[in-house]
Amino acid sequence: MKNESGAETLSPIPSRGGSWLWGVGGFVLIVLSANSVLVYHAVSSHRPLVRDDYYSASLIYDDIREQRLRADTSNFIWDLEKAQEGWQLRLQASEEPLAFQGVLRFYRPSDQSLDREVKIRYMGWNESEGFALYLGETAPLARGAWEIQVSLTDDRGISMEKIFHRFLEEG
User: Fold this and answer.
1) What is the DSSP string of 70-128?
2) Distance (Å, rounded) from C-alpha 163 to C-alpha 102?
3) Which of 44, 89, 133, 166 has its CA 20 to 30 A from that of 27?
4) Is 96 in contact with 76 (CB distance < 8 Å)?
5) Between residues 71 and 77, the one the model is more confident about
6) CA gap 167, 170 in Å, rounded
7) Residues 6+ apart with CB under 8 A from 120
8) β-pairing verdict for 116-126 and 101-107
9) What are residue 83's phi and psi, to 5 degrees?
10) DSSP string across 4-68
């Protein structure tokens, strides 16, 4: 191409529509790809809302619920006392209960910063007196009113709870 003076000039490079169009197109492509992956996962991992064996599943659930109700605390005579080695829980029963695992939760109504939780362990069955012994160690507790919650759970998931109210004279 020649200009008015007759000198040869270079022609400008034609524009391809701007780079922002390529950016928008790339973004749309990413969004469509992500949506297609989500739709694929939703269709391939379909879980029905109603099970085919709903009746037998409900019977199993009812059985578990009945077992938990049978493990009511009224089957045992509970005794919690503070001993030299820690807190002793005695469950008196006609036959040896399962080896429960559990925790003692100490609640101080007047000062929640003193609340704590301690694991208790099964120490054994005293056959002559008919009680199971559990032991939970704890640091000294402040003088005053305490609410002590005992929670026990066996291997099948059956749990029992009992709450004691104690006034401690010394820590």
Assistant:
1) HT-GGGSEEEEEEETTEEEEEEE-SSPPP--EEEEEEE-TT-GGG-EEEEEEEEEEETT
2) 13
3) 44
4) no
5) 77
6) 9
7) 87, 89, 102, 103, 104, 134, 135, 136, 150
8) antiparallel
9) -115, 180
10) TTS-B-PPPPPP-S-HHHHHHHHHHHHHHHHHHHHHHHHHHT---SS-TTHHHHHHHHHHHHHHH
> CA angle 84-101-107, nearest 5°?
60
CA–CA separation, 78 and 123 (whole Å): 15
Residue of 151, 152, 153, 149 whose CA lies nearest to 164: 149
**DSSP tag of 143:** S
Mapping DSSP to helix (H, G, I), strand (E, B) and coil, where does residue 69 land?
helix
The encoded tokens of residue 77 equal: 């005579």
pLDDT the model gives residue 12: 65
Residue 134 and residue 154 in contact, taking contact as beta carbons nearer than 8 Å: no
CB 121 within 8 A of CB 88: no
* Tokens read off for 165: 């109210």
> pLDDT for 14-50, tens place per residue?
666 567 888 899 999 999 999 999 999 988 887 777 7
Which amino acid is residue 6, in one-letter code? G
For residue 142, the surrounding DSSP H or E stretch is none
